[in-house]
């Protein structure tokens, strides 16, 4: 122990006193002073610690050489976890809980001596922390992402944002604002967005994947319903999930177009501009492509042209500005001589042959999209009459007549010019071809065929009194029956001429055939294409004449129905009646090979095709074939007795039909529907556009929808209109109606000639004009001549003298008012007397002439000379 100043003074006093005693001669006893007392002190008697913190205490012991101490916490040796622990060196570790504790150091030399320190234990304040959200991001280039920093245990923290360690970022790694709005760079890559809390070590970071998204093609131009494959290109993402949209609509819709999950876009059916977009799922990244949907159309539609004629076609591309077009014929750019040519402006020139063709056009903006329309080059030429009742629709109108006008057709100016004797009855309608070269000279030629199986070519102008040529097609079959064809049955039907090949097709009945199809050169009469060929065939059936399930064409049939040429299929149609069934055969016009057979009652009987000599009607735009069928008394009710039928042009398969609701009544009374040919009426877009009319012996004329013919109902007729005409219960209509300039002409047996108006696809229900001459033998089939819509004349052959073997009478009426008879061949006495009357004959008018077939001669009428 280090002596203090007071202890030094005490010792000095004591020493001086001792010396005084000694000097006085007194002796004293020497004693050892007592040891100093033990004391303990601590270097820190009061402190504050955080939980689990440590403090090194230092104890000082005086008054003893033993300076070691023992340590306690709250009287617990070494303490414990609840109060804190202290080791032998005095290292105190605070407990985990807050509280006040006493740390005591006790001298081992004197256990009564100790020193204590008060320790206040406190829970430490939480350290500053920061987190960032979202923790990861996937962004498209240049996209933005708002990051948010969450800071704890810091009041009013100051934040510092960085990208890849660059404060605020830059254009290469992306930039970030003080508010944490990150804008990705314009190139893909991987980056780290970080935030630091100022003056602390707290920081957080987020991983950012920047990818690029693009879509190809960038722009598209498509036609209605066209498709476009779009492709999304994603860089810096593995297996991205894509979502496609059109105008913001996921997957699109019918108005804007649809797009599949694979990016296949299908344009809508309307013009417009649209945006195809693609998103990478779970991101806001999008890429888009602009597209234009345009409509492409071509007009006109359904054109029929004569060989060599021209037609201007017009293309329209709505939605495109200043479009350019490429034109095709049957898929060939610009066409060719065999199919017709088309110019860059859409002017089509028909080839020399008949047949169907397709005009198509594409826009340069999208050549995969085309618009197309069909046309047919038909069997027609200026001034010709090539088929029964003048055309394939069987209208009976010759509208190119410039000489015969109502003002000059009278007995003073018009009459019989000449007659040509023939070897048999002329049931077939005469045919006419102008300016035909025969035997080295050019003639207007009229052709007739007789029941003696002879075909004649006569000069229509009388420049040669003998035939230009005549050919015999065999020995006719002897016949003498109630039909009046006597004494032989040879050529009954009207032939058809293919003017594009100068070929006449004729069917002759012979004793050795009985039926043969001939193809004759109209300039010489010689056979063509390896003809003739036998017309025969069988179908499966269980009808009256079935032989082990097979029905054969019978020898007893009449081939009375006129022949027809289909310019779409280039097939010749041959119909049969007056036998157990109705038959229609199709033969290729060039090879003469049989192409199809149709039998209308294979499991019954009836349905004969006789039609008063009329021919099947052919829609020259579509190639569809229309026929009407008949009935015989007590025919079984099976198949298509008394029906309108639509047949396919190539296979003659039945496509649709109409059968009157009183068919069983017609059957009982032998009241054929097919007593004349059907007539295809001109289209009327404002109502039902496609219609066909015909009538039967009960006097009912039916207006039928060709596209939905009505089939059969026992309770009602599903037709557009039914109009009744005639004066009898039965045996009224035996003829084919004629149509011209909004009027229908019908002359029933035992009745006068009537006209009915035709407007908006409907007949007038009553005649608008009527003649005054009653025809007793089956009425008449009327033919019309006109110059377009002017100077119309209605012509008919009055065969009322048939039963008495008297002459036929040619009659002419003002076509605008048939009450006004212009001329008949009885008005000039015997001058104009025609040959002996036949049933069902039809006059032919062409080139200022009227041609009348009779039992023994061809009569030619025209304007009389001066």
Question: Characteristics of this structure?
Answer:
866 residues; mainly beta; Immunoglobulin-like; six-stranded mixed sheet; 45% strand; disordered N terminus
CATH superfamily of the largest domain: Quinoprotein alcohol dehydrogenase-like superfamily
Task: Quote the average pLDDT.
Answer: 93
Question: In percent, how much strand structure appears in the residues?
Answer: 35-45%
Residues in helices, as a percent range:
under 10%
The tally of beta strands, per DSSP, is 81
Structural class: mainly beta
For the biggest sheet, the summary is: 6 strands, mixed
* CATH class call of the largest domain: Mainly Beta
Describe this structure in words.
There is one protein chain. With 866 residues, this protein is mainly β. The chain has five domains: 38-122, Immunoglobulins (Immunoglobulin-like); 129-211, Immunoglobulins (Immunoglobulin-like), CATH 2.60.40.10; 217-293, Immunoglobulin-like (Sandwich); 300-377, Sandwich (Immunoglobulin-like), CATH 2.60.40; 388-863, 8 Propeller (Methanol Dehydrogenase, Chain A). Helix content is 3%, strand content 45%. It contains two helices and 81 strands. The strands form 20 sheets. Strands 13, 16, 17, 21, 22 and 25 form a six-stranded mixed sheet that branches. A hairpin with a 4-residue loop joins strand 66 and strand 67. The radius of gyration is 58 Å and the shape is rod-shaped. It starts with a helix and ends with a strand. The relative contact order is 0.07. Residues 1-28 have low confidence and may be disordered.
